[in-house]
Write a structure and sequence with these properties.
single chain, 334 residues, alpha/beta, Diaminopimelate Epimerase, Chain A, domain 1, 6-stranded parallel sheet, 6-stranded mixed sheet, 11 helices, binds adenosine monophosphate, binds manganese (II) ion
Length: 334
């Protein structure tokens, strides 16, 4: 296969310089990591390792076993004992997303680099490379490898394709451009197993998760374009090792009448995790930011204090308001 055309996105030169001269970078993926967090962590970790560096790969929460086919999966730590010389935050829109890994006092004075594709990114680093048009942070790591003139190999391509496949839910999102498809072709050509990645990350669920989906689906409510459901602690008491009804929020948005979907998850610490999805034309990242979270227009989230029913009531009302405003502005335009 021919190479993809020259990428139209180029990393900042100061980033390339920093990565070339670094010795022991600390790479941090966001808390509750998804495929793009672990994909970009392992892709960049492997790339830097191949360049002769000694990277530390870290994430506050253990990477789900789903991703154990990725390079350096076993080297991801939940605590950092060594002293890095630079810190790189991946797929993280604000510093709280790094969780307990980023210890302000301890790492004070070390350069912080942010590599991210969230439109809600708050530019919290010394170098901020933020590309909201990219479908995944892994797409950015691909451009980084190209700019560093580092060849793809099967291992790197597999880690890169994992973030692209998971963040686009299998190439279904509007940010999948012809360039993403070119890149994907190149990654497959380098040995990335597309079907295996898709099967492992999108089409495999534990039996317990299926059971939880059933219970959460039982709580579905719909009104004024907003479909919502709750996932309480009590509902999963007998389901060991399972918290989130992973994937369900995208599924309920498939209801024909729904414009916005929300799932509210009661966490073990008593807080409520809110997960939002929107159809094209609606923006849930705005509401997530208003509530102290972040994300992308079609997929965003936040974590709130309060009991799950009142959080649901309050947030669903805000989501309905978003739909009303969009309908109003459409009427004005027409
Ligand atoms: P999720 O619903 O957990 O899959 O998250 C959807 C999107 O929202 C992802 O891009 C997340 O990075 C982002 N997101 C979720 N929760 C938060 C949060 N508390 N703060 C910032 N971004 C979030
Ligand atoms: Mn992510
Ligand atoms: Mn991402």
């Amino acid at each position: 296969m021919t190479e993809s055309p020259t990428p139209h996105i180029e990393p900042p030169l100061e980033l390339l310089d920093a990565l070339t001269s670094v010795r022991k970078p600390l790479l941090i993926a966001h808390i509750s990591p998804d495929g793009d967090a672990i994909g970009s962590l392992t892709a960049l970790g492997y790339l830097l390792y191949r360049m002769g560096k000694d990277p530390i790969l870290a994430c506050q929460d253990k990477a789900p076993a789903t991703f154990n086919f990725l390079p350096f999966y076993d080297r991801i730590v939940q605590r950092v004992d060594e002293r890095p010389d630079i810190i790189i935050a991946l797929d993280s829109s604000d510093p709280t997303r790094m969780g307990t890994i980023y210890e302000e006092e301890r790492f004070n004075g070390l350069p912080l680099i942010v590599i991210d594709h969230h439109i809600t990114n708050v530019f919290f680093g010394d170098i901020n490379w933020v590309e909201p048009t990219c479908c995944a942070t892994d797409e950015m790591i691909y451009y980084l490898a190209k700019a560093l003139k580092e060849p793809l190999d099967e291992t790197l391509a597999t880690a890169l394709l994992t973030g692209i496949v998971t963040d686009t839910r299998g190439f279904r999102t509007y940010n999948v451009t012809p360039e993403v498809m070119h890149i994907t072709g190149e990654l497959i050509d380098a040995g990335a197993p597309l079907a295996m990645i898709t099967e492992r990350t999108l089409d495999t669920r534990s039996m317990a998760l299926i059971v939880l989906w059933g219970r959460v689906l039982d709580t579905v409510e719909f009104a004024d374009g907003v479909i919502s459901a709750v996932n309480s602690m009590a509902m999963r008491q007998d389901l060991e090792g399972i918290i989130r009804a992973e994937g369900l929020v995208s599924f309920i948005l498939s209801a024909q009448e729904a414009k916005i979907a929300a799932v509210f998850t009661e966490m073990p610490d008593g807080k409520v995790e809110c997960s939002f999805r929107a159809r094209r034309g609606y923006d849930v990242s705005r509401i997530a930011v208003q509530l102290g979270g972040g994300g992308h227009p079609p997929a965003a989230g936040c974590t709130l204090d309060g009991d799950i029913s009142s959080v649901r009531r309050r947030v669903v009302e805000m989501l309905r308001q978003e739909i009303r405003e969009k309908s109003m502005s459409k009427l004005v335009k027409e």
